[in-house]
Amino acid sequence: KKIEEGRWEDIRECIGCNICVTGDSTVTPIRCTQNPSMGEEWRRGWHPERIRPKTSAARVLVVGAGPAGLEAAVMLGRRGYEVEGAANGSDAFAKVQASEFDVVVADIHMRGMNGIELCERIVANRPDLPVVVITAFGSMETAIAAIRAGAYDFLTKPFETDALALTLERALQH
User: Fold this and answer.
1) pTM
2) How many other CB atoms are there within 10 angstroms of residue 32's CB atom?
């Protein structure tokens, strides 16, 4: 329907990683490294482009995460959050020192300072600022490392848009 209705901005670009295809023979839910909401329409019978508004005023810093981070930033912006992006951990830490943010969403795998190191530095300097760590390579060890570093929560990509929004709302109330 998106093509028929001319909603080109709702179509995400594929980079050909084929992670979506790998689930076909294993009966796993459809997933995509470029679009964290992929498959939600099929699994839940709803449309992620119809985004519920935010429930609090917040300024969010989204760090790294590649196209999925951009997708998360777009979805949070559509919800009404003020969203700013940073390409890597060093840029993010500089922004945290220079500006006020209410929550940080950071990928683990980034060039230079990774998300765990960024989380540790933020918690050491701004213990009141919650950090939500996201990754496409989630494991129990990675989740434990993130929580030990002071992360408020840990999400694996692809994540559902409502899961990210709910995590942010809880972090803001913390």
Assistant:
1) 0.69
2) 21
How confident is the model over 63-86, as pLDDT tens digits?
A: 986 776 777 788 888 888 899 999
Which pair of tokens denotes residue 171? 């972090």
Separation of alpha carbons 32 and 79, rounded Å: 22
Task: State residue 166 phi and psi, 5-degree precision.
Answer: -65, -40
Do residues 95 and 59 lie in contact, with contact meaning Cβ atoms separated by under 8 Å? no
Q: Are 111 and 88 in contact (CB under 8 A)?
A: yes
Neighbours of 161 (CB within 10 A): 21
Phi-psi region of 33 (alpha: psi -120 to 50; beta: other; left: phi over 0): alpha
For every residue of the chain, which 3-state class applies, written as one string? CCCCCCCHHHCCCCCCCCHHHHCCCCCCCCCCCCCCCCCHHHHHCCCCCCCCCCCCCCEEEEECCHHHHHHHHHHHHHHCCEEEEECCHHHHHHHHHHCCCCEEEEECCCCCCCHHHHHHHHHHHCCCCCEEEEECCCCHHHHHHHHHCCCCEEEECCCCHHHHHHHHHHHHHC
Using CA atoms of 158, 164, 165, 169 in order, give the dihedral in degrees to the nearest 10. 180
User: Side chain identity at 91, as an amino acid letter?
Assistant: D
- Both tokens assigned to 86: 């940073």
